[in-house]
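Subject line: Sequence and fold of a protein, written as structure tokens
Area: Proteins and the way their chains fold up in space.
Start of record: The labelled sequence and token lines come straight after this line.
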Amino acid sequence: MNTSDFPSPIIDRYFEDYVPGFVGEYGSITVSQDAIIEFAKQFDPQTFNRHHQSCPGTFGGLIASGWHTSAMMMRLYADHFVSKVASLGSPGIDELRWTRPVRPGDTLSIRVTILEARRSSSKPDRGLVRSQIEVLNQNKEGRHEPQGYDPVSMQEGQLGRA
């Protein structure tokens, strides 16, 4: 799947376009050994994220930091799913899980399932979209599974409608 599978283009997406039950798969990022090591040096300097020679036992080789996986997920999510015109920034994520390691050479994509879309009771110009985001490798095996919350503006013509 790609962004054309969504009912509206990312540059014209509003709350009303996020329908519970929708599932879409997006993007691809191929993970290199150098990128894993560089991210680890800067942000998560655990041994198994920095030195492939020192980690054959625990994880069977070099793996990406879970936070690196999260950053790559966010890149794909922002590029392909989050509205470019109506996103209001997320208040957070729930149930963050790193289910399997990401390794050099893996090509990652995301599968997004809209779980809930509800209008705000206190702010009538927006709604809240809750989504399950799965990071998949090239074999469609899950690697990372957070649930995200995204406040999204309504289309002007939809304000006040029930």
